[in-house]
Structure formats: C-alpha cells, structure tokens
Amino acid sequence: MAAEKLRDLSQPIDVPLLDATVAAFYGTGSKEERSTADQILRELQNNPDTWLQVVHILQNSQNLNTKFFALQVSYYFSSSTIYLRNTFKEKETICVQNN
C-alpha cells in the first residue's frame, strides 16, 4: 500500500511517507524493510516523472537524506537530458554531413 502510494506520481508525493522510506533505507528498519525501501527508492529514481516532484520534496521534507535523494533525482534527470541532447546533436551533424 505505502509503496503504491509513492509510485503514484499523478499527485504530489507523500513526503512523510517518503521520509519514512528513506529512514528505513538508512538503517532504522529491519533488513527486509531496508531491502524494500531500496527497491522503492530505485524505482522512484528511475521513473522519469519523479523529477517533477523534486521541488515539492525539497520544500516539505525535514529529513536531510530525503532532500539529498531529491537532489540525486534532479541531477540524474539533468545529466540524462544533457547526454541525450548531445547525442542528438552528434546524430544530426552526421545526417547533415551525409546529405
């Protein structure tokens, strides 16, 4: 239930639930809870819509580890965007040169 609520990014993310998940990942939970938290956080990091929640997380979280998680998501997205932009520029340049 909690994981599904975090995965639903069609509405603002539940920051207290995210804080609890991050806290479980960093050791306040059992080994099983850490494993589950790791899986949820990885899914969120890999979801391209999570970056839309970064500002909301940074504004509403009191947990520094959660804020760091949000910044990692933001960094990952911006790095991916720059990589894709540069890749397309190279491919476009090759296409122009070949025509």
Automatic annotation (TrEMBL):
InterPro entries: ARM-like (IPR011989), ARM-type_fold (IPR016024), Importin-beta_N (IPR001494), XPO1/5 (IPR045065). Coiled coil: none annotated. GO terms for cellular component: cytoplasm; nucleus. One of its GO terms (molecular function) is small GTPase binding. Residues 37-72 form the Importin N-terminal domain. Gene3D superfamilies: Leucine-rich Repeat Variant (1.25.10.10). Pfam families: IBN_N (PF03810). GO terms for biological process: protein export from nucleus; ribosomal large subunit export from nucleus; ribosomal small subunit export from nucleus. Belongs to the exportin family. PANTHER family: EXPORTIN 1/5, EXPORTIN-1. This is Importin N-terminal domain-containing protein. It comes from Colocasia esculenta.
